[in-house]
Design goal:
MetI-like fold; mainly alpha; 15 helices; 69% helix
């Protein structure tokens, strides 16, 4: 007689009530472990929750509940009546064009808007690993040419707009993008030069890095704006934005060089010996073996430098270039809106935060990919 053995029963999936109880238990366990592990910890947690809760409620009341979003024309009376009680977000729809595009001709502001969207699309494609290679290089060249055509004009029936009229977000993106795009390869070359066995090259790279890092960025911008034209021949005049761009490239190259040099020092010596044993040339050894590992080691400080550099573009205010922060400050010169600068600065800070947060998130993805590979 054959004995029949019953197959082991498969565990039943958790129902919704069970799942809720499990989630609640996890939340309670986390709270006990992190916020209420002891009596002092519980007291501090309750105080912080009370303070943060009060601040959050006040912020919601000021920014949303009591806020005014639209006013008719320049009638700011309703906003002034709520001074200190609610925000006047009506200043944003009233001044957003000047904040984003500065003094660019009003009827042509679709061009800097399209240039900004092109920058964002270019950044997105750059983050796609499947798009890396020659296609990406061609895309960068084509996109930058398109941005130049849109901003300058003068061809394809587009009205010519001089760089003196540029301002706002496109200028910030131009300074940051070109500064990092040219500063990064410059930093790689300088980092390799600092580790060169040739004393002349090593000394020149050390002098460059120490000189640029030893002075504030403001002094570099002053030199580019005021002193540099004095050394140019008569009749030769380089645009102020281009001079500022060169200063940013030199500044970014010096700081990125030190970050990359740290990554080169973190690569084990055996990798160098293995590359030499394969008979690779200097450039192939560094391009195929050493630099990929070095950059992988320094992804966090690299992105930290990128974020700091993006925010440092606001310093061009001192040489009269209208970047995003400068146009925001100028937009509230109007006496009718001077009292509502906080709302304008919050709007601009959200734009800066969006770009910086995107860079931070992408760096975390790169770190996760580097750990898994």
């Amino acid at each position: 007689m054959t004995s029949l053995t019953s197959a082991p029963e498969s565990p039943l999936p958790l129902g919704r009530p069970q799942y809720r109880r499990t989630l609640s238990a996890r939340i309670i366990a986390w709270l006990r472990a992190n916020l209420f592990a002891s009596i002092p910890s519980s007291i501090m947690s309750l105080l912080l929750i009370a303070v943060l809760g009060k601040a959050f409620v006040s912020l919601v009341q000021w920014g949303f509940v009591n806020a005014i979003w639209i006013v008719s024309g320049d009638q700011t009376g309703p906003c002034r009546a709520l001074r200190g009680i609610g925000a006047c977000w009506a200043v944003i729809p009233e001044k957003y064009r000047f904040i984003l595009f500065g003094t660019y001709p009003f009827s042509e502001q679709w061009r800097p808007a399209l240039a900004t969207l092109t920058f964002i699309a270019l950044f997105y494609l750059t983050t796609r690993r499947s798009f890396w290679g020659r296609k990406l290089v061609a895309t960068w060249i084509g996109a930058l040419v398109l941005i130049g055509v849109l901003m300058w004009g003068g061809i394809f029936d587009l009205t010519y707009v001089s760089q003196d009229r540029w301002g706002g977000l496109p200028v910030t993106l131009i300074l940051a993008t070109f500064g990092l795009a040219f500063g990064f390869p410059l930093g790689i070359l300088v980092a390799l030069g600092r580790r060169s066995k040739l004393p002349a090259i090593r000394s020149l790279c050390v002098l460059y890095v120490e000189l640029i890092r030893g002075v504030p960025l403001i002094s570099l911008l002053f030199m580019a704006s005021v002193m540099f034209p004095l050394f140019m021949p008569d009749g030769v005049n380089i645009d102020k934005l281009l001079r500022a761009q060169i200063a940013f490239v030199l500044y970014a190259g010096a700081y990125l060089a030190e970050v990359i040099r740290g990554g080169l020092q973190a690569v084990p010596r055996g990798q160098y010996d293995a590359a030499d044993a394969l008979g690779l040339s200097y450039w192939k050894k560094n391009g195929l073996i050493i630099l990929p590992q070095a950059i992988r080691h320094v992804i966090p400080p690299l992105v930290n430098t990128f974020i700091a550099f993006f925010k440092d573009t606001s310093l061009v205010l001192i040489i009269g270039i209208f970047d995003l922060l400068t146009t925001a400050k100028t937009s509230i010169i109007d006496p009718a809106w001077q009292s509502f600068s906080v709302e304008v600065y919050i709007f601009v800070s959200l734009i800066y935060f969006a770009f910086c947060f995107a860079m931070s998130r992408y760096s975390r993805q790169l770190e996760a990919q580097a750990r898994s590979s």
